[in-house]
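debug: dumping io for the single-chain case to check the tokenizer round-trip. Nothing else runs in this session.
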Amino acid sequence: MKRKRSFVLDEKDDKAVQLFAELGMPKNLAKTLMYISQVDECRSAEVEQGADLRQPEVSVAMQEMRRRGWAKKRDLKKKGKGRPVHIYKLTKQLPDILKSFESEKMKQVETIKNDLTQLQTLIKDYNR
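debug: decoded output
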């Protein structure tokens, strides 16, 4: 990640995003993950700017990351009235998140293999 006024994803990050997406991770989740993995904590507006995403995309990605236990949110109250600002931080390191993602994908591969084996058994009778 390169630093301009704020952090932005660089070519290496983009390649990681592309690989995660090819493995079935939504692109907004991959971009958000790569951004937040390189900062201590951040506001959603910083993720929007640094990962080139819209606010709803960041919101959906952060909900998914929190659901998976990869990130946590805390609220920072602003002075006066108005909504608090959400601050996000990873709860696991990126290599641990990758292991969890890999495990999920390997389970899917096993399910596909088992389904193909069952289909082969069922279809044998159709080749007459």
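debug: round-trip ok. The first helix runs from residue 11 to 22.
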